[in-house]
Design goal:
The protein is mainly beta and about 290 residues long. The protein is built from two helices and 23 strands. It is globular and about 65 Å long.
Length: about 290
């Protein structure tokens, strides 16, 4: 090898640094703050490890030997890890629960060619979750109420064929729906209770819907927080009063979109907002987070 090629090889970043697994990633504290979970390789494959905070006694609690785990979170009961995994990249995500007393994993959505989507999971209902599943019709996701301990589930909102996203309130009632329109826009449908009829409360045009979407219901269910680019050059955070229809702008920037919102899990009030300050490429963009007051 020539000196030039040797110098070039010596200056190249090793491929394992660019494409290999991280040593540790995505740390998550347990609900009581006593344990830490993170992703780390186990026999070369990313798995979830758990151990006591402030110590190095971590052990793998999952045993994936294929593509590795990328998405996980603590169960609010503090005794379980929940994670999503597909098979061979088919994107038919299954929801798994790991019982940390035994490290046994259970597939809570053991259905072939069905994709699970987490719609709502709150600390006030630690053993229940609202899931989207295209189990009835592979083209559409219905909403189900899942018992995380038993695996029992109940259909609570059936997709009429145009709903692309559901929103549940603090009591796990599905009360919001994003419905696609033939003109490329979206209708936002809301209902007062899970037994009520749906009503269209606003419509986003094909241009507006790229940066507009419902975020969450307030604790009392009377307000719906929205990312909304109507009447603005950039998406704003808006509070929509479902009784009066009055909308209050909570956060905005004249140039940059409000791109993400963090909701307090206890009070369901807005804690943080982020605005995108560079063009989004795939899932990556530069965002600036600010506390909401």
């Amino acid at each position: 090898m020539s000196d030039t090629n040797s110098d070039l090889a010596a200056s190249l970043i090793p491929l394992e640094l660019l494409f290999g697994n991280p040593d540790r990633a995505m740390p998550r504290l347990s609900p009581d703050g006593t344990r830490l979970a993170f992703l780390a390789p186990n026999e070369g494959v990313l798995n979830v490890w758990v151990g006591p905070v402030g110590q190095e006694r971590f052990q793998p609690v999952t045993s994936d030997r294929d593509r590795g785990i990328r998405t996980y979170f603590w169960g609010y009961d503090g005794q379980s890890i929940l994670f999503l995994q597909d098979i061979g990249g088919d994107e038919d995500w299954h929801l798994f629960r790991v019982d940390l007393t035994t490290n046994q994993a259970s597939d809570l959505t053991p259905f072939e060619h069905v994709q699970a989507q987490v719609i709502e999971y709150t600390k006030h209902h630690p053993t229940r979750m609202v899931l989207g599943l295209n189990r009835r019709d592979q083209r559409y996701h219905d909403a189900y109420l899942l018992d995380l301990m038993t695996g029992d589930m109940q259909l609570i909102a059936e997709n009429p064929g145009d709903v692309v996203g559901w929103v549940a309130d603090a009591e796990l009632a599905v009360r919001g729906a994003m419905a696609a329109r033939p003109d490329g826009g979206f209708d936002l449908r809301v209902r007062p209770t899970a037994q009520s009829d749906w009503e269209v409360v606003l419509t986003w045009s094909a241009d507006e819907n790229l940066n507009s979407q419902p975020v969450a219901f307030s604790a009392d269910g009377g307000t719906l927080y929205l990312l909304d680019s109507r009447h603005s050059d950039a998406a704003r955070l808006v509070a929509h009063d479902l009784t009066t229809g009055v909308e209050t702008v909570m956060a905005e920037d004249p140039t940059y979109d409000v791109s993400a919102v963090e909701i307090d899990p206890e009070s369901r009030e807005v804690q943080l907002v982020a605005r995108s300050e560079e063009r989004r490429v795939g899932k990556e963009c530069r965002s600036r987070w600010s506390p909401y007051h």
